[in-house]
Amino acid sequence: MEWYAALALLIGTLIVLMLLGVPVVFAFFLVNIVGAWVFMRGDVGLTQFMRNTVDSLQSFALLPVPLFIFMGEMMFHSGVAARAIDAIDKLISQLPGRLSLVAVCGGTIFASLSGSTISNTAMLGSTLLPEMYRRGYHPSVSIGPIVAVGGIAMLIPPSALAVLLGSLAQIGIAELLVASILPALILAALFFAYIVARCTLRPDLAPAYDQHAMSWRERVMPFVKYVLPLLSIFVVVVGSIVSGVATPTESAALGAVATVAATAAYRKLSRRNLLVAINKTMRITVMTLFIIAGSVTFSQLMAFSGASGGLSALVLGSELRPLTVLLGMLGVLLILGCFMDQVSMMLITVPLYMPVVSNLGLNEIWFGVLMLMILEISLATPPFGMLLFVIKGVSPGTSMREIIVSVAPFVIMALVVVALLIAVPGITLIVPEMIARRGG
Hints:
Layout: H1 3-19, H2 24-39, H3 43-56, H4 64-78, H5 80-91, H6 98-111, H7 117-134, H8 143-150, H9 160-169, H10 173-179, H11 181-201, H12 216-226, H13 228-242, H14 248-265, H15 271-304, H16 307-317, H17 322-337, H18 342-360, H19 364-378, H20 386-394, H21 400-423, H22 426-439
Helix pairs in contact: 1-2, 1-16, 2-3, 2-15, 3-15, 4-9, 4-14, 4-15, 5-6, 5-12, 6-7, 6-8, 6-11, 7-8, 7-20, 8-21, 9-10, 9-18, 10-22, 11-21, 13-14, 15-18, 16-18, 17-18, 17-19, 18-19, 19-21
């Protein structure tokens, strides 16, 4: 069978199953069974499929996934994150668009403690949106910032999705985790500046309201008490990786222990909170591991059938400039993001993209960060952006049209940051190169 026919069979069957409503996990397993039978000599291929399924889940590099997810769930269900949000609110009370800025700052800080974009958005939405509406905030400076900053959890470690991408693409997980930090901070700073500028020019978008006068000590002390200790968890996770003291797996374990210790120190550690966090973590982890198990065989089928090699040869033979190929790949991801979830997008595109990236001589860490940026943007693109529905769930009185319009400026800003990273790749490589020098 020609490579293009094999590609059409594998991808086509997968898309049809998804359109029929088959869950992603089972869609990949069904495609793998068909592909193993067709391309790997029937029952021999099915035996190999079962071996791949077992082997794919025995990787030590996958342990950060449940640990990072647990950190976010523990912070969310214990209420520690909500207390930190209130402390940030007191600190920046003098600025225009105060609650919107709280969303950006609080969301960025919570992203450094959570590997879950959904938890980040749900926490910010349920905590801040009711107060924003009560104060007369316009949706463009209330819903927009919450959805936009919710996706930053995908970029700042601990990021379970970055671990998953690194594992699927066979690129350094530690380097990918830390390479996303600067782009995420640039994105948050851009959101912050946009809100300040817009609310200064249009004060009616975020009406000011009277509040009791607070001394500088009253504004700063809650931040010192409820935020700085939490930031130490981020320092533990990232610092141990950057310094070379710990691997990503070991740093994730340190982060999980530090999270439990923090909730205990704030007297928020209870049996109920712990069990709820563990239950949520196990559900998400089992789903993720099933997807990984299916994706490994899918990647092998793409290679064994000649589909990935044929597509790579076609792209290289077209003599297109590497930048053109790169933009094309990112463009396909943007389109897929309008209709698919992030994990499905990765599973379909990574086996096709990585051979092309390697043959073009592109830096794999840089490409991984760009891919994470596009995946982050696709969380907020209509019609099926996941965070659009999360925020709809916590603001039932708001129409989907209002949500999409309010998020649009932030999507554009995120695309501007992607363009910046393409123009200046060194932004993503500063911290990974620091790790490499320490390792050398």
